[in-house]
Amino acid sequence: MSAPEPVSLNYELDILPESTWIVATPDPTVKQAAPHVMEVGEFFARERYYTRRRNLPSFLIKYTLGGAGLLEYAGREEQIPARHAFWIDCIEPQYYRTDPGEKRWDFAWVHFYGPGCAKFYEWFLAENGGSNAVELPVDTNVPALIHRLSSIYRGGDNTLPDDAEAAALVACVMAECVKAASRRCPGAAKMPAAIAGARAYLTEHYRDPVTLSDLSTLVSLDRFYFQKQFKRFTGLSPKRFQALIRVNRAKELLQTTDHPVSEIAGMVGVESASRFIGLFRSYEGVTPGEYREKWRRK
């Protein structure tokens, strides 16, 4: 039997100091029985960041929080903008980098391996038309799952129950990607252009006081029919969709700036600090101030 080829790796780690990179040390029992974390982290990458690699026995999922990256893999080049992820088998040649047009790429990522991962990966590719990149829903919990994985291994004192929880979290991350990819399967209904246009408009104009009537007029549909179709194809009402965009943008600002909560409320389109605090708590279970404090203790 021939020896495996050595890992080939070339990279430029152009990242901000607040980035995290954690090497996990799961129990050998878990590594033999279930998916397990190899490395995990959150990078705030600048324009020179890139990685070229092959022959690493690992799977990698990266989820874009802000900015955008570019992935060259399996003969394709794909952009990975906000709320998109890629999933690759790191045995194959790969090249990913900050999108030069964006000059920044903020992402949460996890390297993992173990029993069942290859089957999940095959399932993902089959549902995703062979593409390694996928758009996740606006309310996806993938970044929160990866953040929890980072918390488990940050101190280096993980126990077997921690490793078991991590295995379950990795499975959840894979399942979320498969679910997102399944929207692209041949039997799935294609999102109408009017709904896609309304969704794009809300994403771009999340700060503005856009009403249901505004949106339905914009796409030339009856107001009640539009609302029903929007929820059918996005899983959310237009109001809830916009609220989630606002909360997600607020989370980025709370993590990366020192702006007061009252100022962030206005930056995401909420007219009062008290209403913003109530909205944020309804989605995150904590106030914006508590979220910021909790984030900075990590």
Index terms:
single chain; 298 residues; alpha+beta; Jelly Rolls; Arc Repressor Mutant, subunit A; 2 domains; ten-stranded antiparallel sheet; 11 helices; 10 strands; 44% helix
Condensed summary:
The chain has helices at residues 28-33, 117-127, 142-154, 160-182, 193-204, 212-218, 223-234, 238-256, 261-267, 273-284, 288-297, and strands at residues 8-12, 20-23, 36-46, 50-54, 59-73, 76-81, 84-89, 94-98, 104-113, 133-135. By secondary structure, the chain is of the alpha+beta class.
**Spatial shape:** globular
CATH class of the largest domain: Mainly Beta
Based on DSSP secondary structure assignment, what is the total number of beta strands? 10
Radius of gyration: 20 Å
CATH architecture of the largest domain: Sandwich
Based on helices, strands and strand pairing, what is the structural class? Answer: alpha+beta
Could you report the average pLDDT, rounded to the nearest whole number? 89
CATH superfamily of the largest domain: Regulatory protein AraC
Beta-strand portion reads 15-25%
State the low-pLDDT regions, or none: none
Which series of helices and strands comes N to C?
EEHEEEEEEEHEHHHHHHHHH
What is the topology?
Blueprint: E1 8-12, E2 20-23, H1 28-33, E3 36-46, E4 50-54, E5 59-73, E6 76-81, E7 84-89, E8 94-98, E9 104-113, H2 117-127, E10 133-135, H3 142-154, H4 160-182, H5 193-204, H6 212-218, H7 223-234, H8 238-256, H9 261-267, H10 273-284, H11 288-297
Antiparallel strand pairs: 1-4, 2-3, 3-9, 4-8, 5-6, 5-7, 5-8, 5-9, 7-10
Helix pairs in contact: 2-4, 3-4, 6-7, 8-11, 9-10
